[in-house]
Design a protein that fits this description.
26% of the residues lie in helices and 25% in strands. The chain contains 26 helices and 58 strands. The chain is globular. It starts with 19 loop residues before the first strand and ends with a helix.
Length: 1348
């Protein structure tokens, strides 16, 4: 275990080696505690975190048991006796109190106080999909999470783009108060610099960044006091204050906070908590702090009450682990920084015990517990993220980059649509898996148990109603018998229960490996170049399989693997993080002196805080960072201070390594200065597993001493005689060849037959010594008896290829649209162009890309060679609109095309709001060989992008040619990556097997759609489904769906739809297929692979030269963003699935061209955003308010970023109350967005549903139409003249003018007080999945990927 030495000295004084140093991890299921004393054996305690019949608080009970064991003859301390601190040197603790309060919505009642016009800032948020609930796992289970109904606040995230009900958790706050106050930057970045007015009391120059601001409205203290009194009368005692731009100047926040504190409120002030730009993030964080910190403080006080003298008696003895991996004193511990308190201990633990800085071997770690599986990476430095989303709440605070990827041993097992599915639902801690004796469902733990991979005789007897029984293997077997019967129904080749269980383990491992690949590959790291650290109670059972799947040759398991989080607390340092906003420029290192001065001040503050806790100067180290980005980009990069002080070079080096490129001619801006001051703990020495392995004399263990057990292994091995080896009986250097199970009181390690385990003093190292060979016996013609396990695994593998293509594209692209908005899709296709796997980035790309690939396959046939790459964007060639460029690459095998890969991404421009002809919308490419035999045709593409469009009157070529070329290179690289991965898979498994499972996966999707269509046909008595709707100009959309109930086929007949229009609302037929596949996928409530099979039962009839099949030369750019939404609504209307949604994107653009100012040419700029609205209600849900719907999910810029960059003041972005249609379930409300222009600009709006309202369904009322208003400032008197702009218009607006956009509400569903006997609840209802606890960079990437 290594030699223990002293840790932080209590109160700064000396330390006795006899005193106990206690580290505790209070997890959701178990609480682990380790007590260390110099020269004595550690005391380990493991107990249930919640056991009210035996103790009130698990950590206090753990300490009581430890103190009772300090001396051999010690008497047990009575449970009701306060504990003495005399024998305790320090207590270090990680706790899930804040995590569980956030996940379960059990925090303090609180209120949000914000600027006038921004009371709905957290309702609307960024109006995009939040994917933090990609899995269901978290410690402590999913208890009491309430879903937002119409009587609760709506939430900004659209958690699942296929979930029509858009289920969300309720808000953290009960009340919102808007204070009539406002500030804004005087200078916008895109405008020439303005002189600072003199003797103007509204101008403030002394701000945190040095930027000048203008005070638009000061708060009225009397009115503020009255508003706070009203809050107090409602029982609110905790408030969060978050004003617009308070990160620049926080005096208004401080004024309100002062008044609130005088009245007795607990106050969280956003500019004090984390003074960084972005109101949405700061407001979320401050309300999370107001919601969680009172709960955390009550817990700390309750914990302290179990000790003599209460909490104040601890002084510096009690430290808590923060989410950033550093400890802090108990009175500095806040709920905001406690979300990952427990998991952070595990990361610190493996980083200190498993990483060897001399060798520099990077590590991937998997912390697999009973209710969650967390993944992280370590390569010499703790990796942090600074903004994450947990339980649909944005947390803006430093956190370790930890990602929850699965539900651990509690991941539930399902058989759906012929596929083995693991998670994301969790059995949670209560009731737990079936074997826990509480009537729980089948889970991964049950599969391991019946395969012999767990040792029930060595498990603690803590299960059953009275928590005094062992694991129940019979309960697991009974449920597996039932599941096996379901799987084998109608099949001649039947799977045994063991084959079913082993299949689920394989799928579970593959499910975990997919996000691990993404986490590493997205940052340019190969999985196979890492070693794998497994810890947590369930980690040892899966290590060999996960490593094999990832191509990793070595696994490291700490001996304290199931206690590693607690061990990490013992090894951790005390940390003080401080961040301040900045506005410096790194270009040419011009602001280095200013940066150095600010940094010195911040370091001094942080180090003084640690000194006050008793740390001597020689044990304090400070790390300093700058949060930087290129001008015009919002992709930030945190760089550490370089030794030579050359920040510019450091940024260039780091940016090149992280993203693969640098930009010339752009300034490098500094947004924040960060200091991380570390008080080094003198903790125990640790041993390197690498050094021990090299130096240790290795020998085969004496297997004759140990018992055998039958354990089931897949790959044709079946039941195998397996050694069961107590870890304590292995000597250092003993080597155990698999199959074997190594165990101790807290963990079970499975050594597979292909691996060799070596026992070391503080680790078990497992190496791959024999490649695993899996024989595939496949009848390539039998699609009725497909191996469901292999089918599920191949589904993950093929989808993983599409995801890795997307990772490459995002990493090495340059443009903001691709890199930051992630407006792209990557997919793989069969040899005939059918969609095989498409990561669901953008709904309007889902079915359209296969049309582009098939078009190229028809044109080129077999004339292509390896190294050829094609480019297309033309609507007649399967394009959606001209800005979307599709790069297509064939994959060859033995001279024949076996697959295609494609990457579709948007480029800037080419969206004129009033185009009439296609040539007005930019470069047109039906088919161009972008790469010929490996050579990129730059000359040809330059002609297409720059020269050809300029031949038309009033048109010009691309303004961003270099960026376009770089992005095309990135698309080619993404396609090439897909081809390489496809070839690797074919080499591993053979072409015939890969294509067999590809076809089987398509057939699975096809059968699911046919089942859906048959079900719908029965529900509606075999009658055709018909719908009609109109665009605002009267253009008709008509659909009739006829279903063959015997076959499950359907004809989607759009006959009667109006002719194409003289405008840009025409919709390419490829988009129509995207709408159909999106609707079908949304109606199938369980997860299903997205592929061509979804469309196989569908025949589409479209009149030629109609709105949905326009001729080659008409304009189409608005068809992609507006008509596509209306087509989707018509299809849903035919299925009577839900009421109409807002039916468009509310496209707002403003800008100005190049002009001359004071004799100098000033470049122009343009801005584009889409605005959310109301969603339609359904049979058992209210429509959500202020969300994007269906075919788009676009992020909107934060008000602080937008006002800092552009010459605008956004006075209001709020819910448009009572605009959703009435019904048994109400439609969602639209939004109001009020934008003032501070200089003369050209402004345009493109929108629908300003005349024809979103329809109601089943007797529900329609939603209200939208309205666009120009508030023209009067010249001769105060106020504005209000002008109705209609649905689409453009105007030259003057400084002081405003555009006010009122977006439509969603339709209502049903007549109030009635039921709908035509539709049962399960038809369109989706499973609600619990949110995850750790949402690091992987979740952020997924969230962006769902935001087009």
């Amino acid at each position: 275990m290594g030699k223990p030495t002293e840790t932080i000295r209590p109160n700064g004084n000396g330390s006795s080696e006899e005193l106990a140093r206690i580290a505790i991890d209070r997890g959701g299921t178990f609480t682990d505690a380790i007590c260390s004393r110099a020269g004595k054996e550690d005391i380990v305690v493991k107990l249930l975190s919640v056991d009210p019949q035996n103790y009130k608080d698990a950590p206090t009970e753990a300490i009581r048991r430890i103190l009772s064991q300090l001396e051999p003859d010690s008497e047990p301390i009575p449970k009701d006796q306060p504990l003495s601190l005399d024998m305790i040197e320090s207590i270090r603790m990680g706790t899930t109190v804040s995590t569980n309060a956030l996940l379960e919505r059990r925090g303090e009642r609180c209120a949000l106080i914000t600027s006038k016009g921004w009371g709905d800032v957290l309702l609307i948020g960024m109006q995009v999909a939040g994917k933090d609930r990609a899995t269901s796992a978290f410690r402590g289970g999913f208890r009491g999470v309430r879903l937002v109904g119409k009587d609760r606040a709506d939430h900004p995230a659209r958690p699942d783009i296929f979930d029509l009900s858009i289920h969300k958790l309720e808000f953290l706050y009960d009340e919102v108060v808007e204070i009539d106050e406002r500030i804004t930057p005087l200078q916008s970045l895109v405008m020439p610099r303005l002189p600072v007015p003199e003797k103007d009391s509204s101008i403030i120059t002394e701000t945190t960044t040095g930027e000048t601001i203008r005070i638009l409205q000061r708060p009225d203290t009397k009115k503020v006091s009255e508003q706070l009194d009203e809050l107090w009368s409602k029982g609110i005692k905790s408030v969060a204050v978050a004003f617009v731009h308070s990160y620049l100047w926080g005096e208004h926040e401080e004024l309100v906070a002062k008044i609130a504190k005088e009245k007795g409120f607990e106050v969280s002030v956003s500019s004090k908590l984390q003074p960084m730009i972005k109101l949405v993030s700061r407001a979320n964080s401050s309300i999370a702090d107001a919601y969680l910190t009172p709960v955390t403080r009550r817990y700390i006080e309750s914990f302290g009450s179990g000790f003599e003298g209460g909490i104040e008696a601890f002084g510096n003895k009690l430290l808590f682990m923060q989410s950033d991996g550093g400890l802090c004193k108990w009175n500095n511990f806040s709920g905001l920084r406690a979300i990952l308190s427990g998991p952070a201990g595990g990361v610190v633990g493996y980083s200190k015990t498993c990483y060897d800085p001399e060798r520099g071997q990077p590590l991937i770690a998997v912390d697999m517990g009973g209710t969650s599986t967390d993944v992280s990476r370590y390569a010499g430095k703790l990796e942090h993220v600074f903004e994450t989303t947990t339980a649909e709440v944005i947390i803006q605070a430093p956190q370790l980059d930890i990602n929850t990827v699965a539900a651990g041993g509690g991941s539930r097992l399902f058989y759906k649509h012929g596929l083995f599915v693991v998670g994301p639902e969790s059995a949670t801690a209560h009731p737990g898996p079936a074997c826990y004796r509480k009537g729980g469902p089948l889970a991964v733990t049950d599969a391991n148990l019946i395969l012999g991979r767990l040792l029930p005789e060595h498990f603690p007897k803590i299960f059953g109603p009275n928590e005094d029984e062992g694991l129940d293997i019979e309960a697991s077997k009974s449920l597996f018998d039932q599941l096996a019967n379901q799987i084998n129904a109608g099949k001649s080749d039947k799977l045994s229960v063991e084959e079913v269980a082993a299949g689920f383990i394989r799928v579970a491992n593959e499910t975990m490996c997919r996000p691990i690949r993404t986490l590493t590959e997205a940052r340019g790291f190969e999985c196979a170049s890492h070693h794998l650290v497994m810890f947590g109670g369930a980690g040892g059972q899966h290590g060999c399989s996960i490593a094999t799947t990832l191509g990793i040759k070595r696994i490291i398991i700490p001996r304290l693997s199931s206690l590693l989080s607690a061990h990490g607390m013992a090894l951790a340092d005390v940390v003080r993080e401080m961040t301040e906003p900045a506005a410096f420029t790194l270009t040419g290192n011009r602001d280095n002196e200013k940066i150095s001065s600010r940094m010195t001040e911040l370091v001094k503050k942080a180090e003084q805080d640690l000194s006050s806790q008793g740390f001597p100067a020689e044990r304090i180290q400070s790390e300093t960072y700058l949060n930087c980005r290129y001008h015009g980009s919002s992709t930030q990069l945190m760089i550490e201070k370089p030794d030579d002080g050359d920040y510019e070079k450091k940024f260039f080096d780091d940016h090149k390594r992280e993203f693969g490129f640098n930009l010339s001619g752009r300034d490098i801006l500094v947004d924040d200065i960060r200091v991380r001051a570390v008080g080094k703990s003198l903790s125990r020495e640790v041993r390197s597993p690498y050094k021990d392995f090299e130096e240790m004399e290795k020998r085969k263990y004496d297997e004759s001493k140990f018992e055998d057990k039958q354990v089931y292994f897949d790959g044709g091995k079946g039941w195998m005689k397996t050694k069961v080896v107590p870890l304590k009986d292995l000597k250092d250097g003993d080597q155990v060849r698999g199959p074997a199970i190594i165990f101790d009181n807290t963990q079970t390690i499975l050594v597979e037959p292909t691996h060799l385990a070596t026992s070391l003093p503080e680790h078990v190292v497992i190496d791959l010594v024999e490649e695993k060979v899996v024989e595939q016996k496949v009848d390539l013609k039998d699609y009725d008896h497909v191996d469901p396990v292999q089918l599920s695994v191949y589904g993950h593998r093929l989808m993983g290829i599409a995801e890795q293509m997307g990772d490459i594209l995002r990493k090495i692209s340059i443009s903001i649209n691709i890199k930051e908005r992630l407006d792209y899709s990557c997919a793989i296709f069969s040899s005939d162009g059918g969609l095989v796997a498409n990561a669901p980035h953008i709904p309007c790309h889902l079915g359209a890309m296969s049309h582009a690939v098939r078009h190229q396959a028809r044109i080129h046939g077999n004339t292509l060679q390896e190294g050829d790459v094609l480019l297309s964007n033309h609507p007649a060639a399967g394009g959606s609109h001209l800005p979307d460029l599709t790069v297509i690459m064939p994959a060859f095998h033995e001279g024949k095309i076996i697959f295609w890969t494609a990457a579709r991404a948007i480029r800037a421009g080419s969206m004129p709001p009033f185009s009439k002809e296609l040539w007005e919308e930019g470069a047109q490419v039906k088919s161009f060989k972008l790469v010929k035999a490996g050579k990129f045709d730059e000359e040809g593409i330059v002609k297409i992008m720059s020269e050809d469009p300029a031949q038309y009157p009033g048109c010009s070529g691309t303004r961003t040619l270099s960026d376009n070329l770089s992005d095309l290179h990135a698309q080619v690289a993404a396609c090439h990556r897909g081809v390489v991965l496809i070839k690797t898979l074919v080499e591993e498994q053979s072409l015939e097997v890969v294509q067999y499972y590809m076809n089987a996966i398509m057939l699975t999707a096809e059968r699911a759609v046919r089942d859906l269509l048959k079900h719908v046909n029965r529900k509606f008595g075999g009658k055709p489904l018909e719908a009609v709707d109109w665009l605002d100009d009267g253009t008709e959309l008509r659909l009739k769906i006829t279903i063959d109930e015997d076959k499950g086929d359907a004809v989607f007949d759009f006959t009667g739809t109006s002719a194409q229009v003289y405008g840009n609302l025409n919709t390419p037929t490829a988009i129509l297929y995207s709408a159909i596949i999106y609707v079908l996928r949304s109606l199938i409530v369980s997860d299903l692979p997205l592929n061509q099979g979804c469309l196989s039962p569908i025949k589409v009839i479209v009149p030629p030269e109609s709105l949905l099949a326009p001729s080659e030369d008409v304009a189409v750019c608005a068809g992609n963003v507006e008509s596509s939404q209306r087509v989707t609504d018509v299809i849903f209307k035919a299925f009577q699935a839900c009421a109409g949604s807002q039916g468009g994107c509310n496209n707002l653009t403003f800008g100005v061209g190049e002009r001359e100012v004071d004799g100098k040419k000033v470049p122009g700029f343009g801005y584009y955003e889409t605005i959310a609205g109301g969603a339609g209600a359904g049979p058992d849900w209210d429509g959500q308010s202020c969300v994007h719907v269906h075919m788009t999910n676009t992020a909107i810029g934060d008000v602080e970023m937008t006002e800092r960059i552009y010459p605008v003041i956004i006075h209001r972005f709020s819910r448009r109350h009572n605009t959703g249609g009435e019904g048994r379930h109400r439609g969602g409300d639209g939004c109001i967005r009020d934008v003032e222009f501070t200089t003369d600009l050209d402004v345009a709006i493109l929108s629908q549903r300003r005349v024809i309202p979103p329809y109601g369904m089943a007797g529900g009322d329609p939603g209200q139409v939208g309205r666009n208003e120009w508030w023209r400032k009067r010249k001769d008197k105060e106020g504005y003249a209000v002008i109705n702009l209609g649905g689409s218009n453009q105007a030259s607006m003057k400084a002081g003018d405003r555009i006010v956009i009122n977006t439509p509400g969603g339709g209502g569903y049903g007549v109030p007080g009635t039921t709908d006997d035509r539709l049962d609840d399960d038809t369109y209802k989706r499973t609600v999945v619990a949110p995850v606890r750790a949402a690091g960079s992987l979740a952020a990437l997924k969230a962006a990927a769902f935001s087009n």
